[in-house]
């Protein structure tokens, strides 16, 4: 296993770890109470979109864990997959920095650490998989 593939394996572990952290989101944001105010279809769409994001992150985790060596080899497909995942996380970071205002919800040290920790994880994904895409 080469050095780049080890970084990619780290990416896979962090993808799956992201899911553990995101499991707290519905409680922290009081989705039960907040979504109850919406029409049923709107509420269902939010849950379905959330599920698709979870499935996408699972897919990213499986791909980066299961195919780290292949991704590190630089084939056109490997570069495209890595680039897409890097773009996904770069877009997520841009939205976080330019659109979201999480400050009202960062009410404890743990929530602040979790939020900033996830930001670092997303940045890691952009750097490692972006490098993999252009390498």
Describe the structure using short key phrases.
single chain; 135 residues; mainly alpha
**Helical content class:** over 70%
- The rough form would be described as elongated
Largest sheet report? none
Task: Give me the number of helical elements.
Answer: 7
Low-confidence stretches: none
Notes on the protein architecture:
By secondary structure, the protein is mostly helical. It has one domain. Helices cover 82% and strands 0% of the residues. The protein has helices spanning 3-22, 25-28, 31-36, 40-66, 68-72, 76-98, 109-134. Helix 1 (3-22) runs antiparallel to helix 7 and helix 6 (76-98) runs antiparallel to helix 7. The longest helix has 27 residues, at 40-66.
In a few lines, what is going on in this structure?
The protein is mainly α and 135 residues long. The protein contains seven helices and no strands.
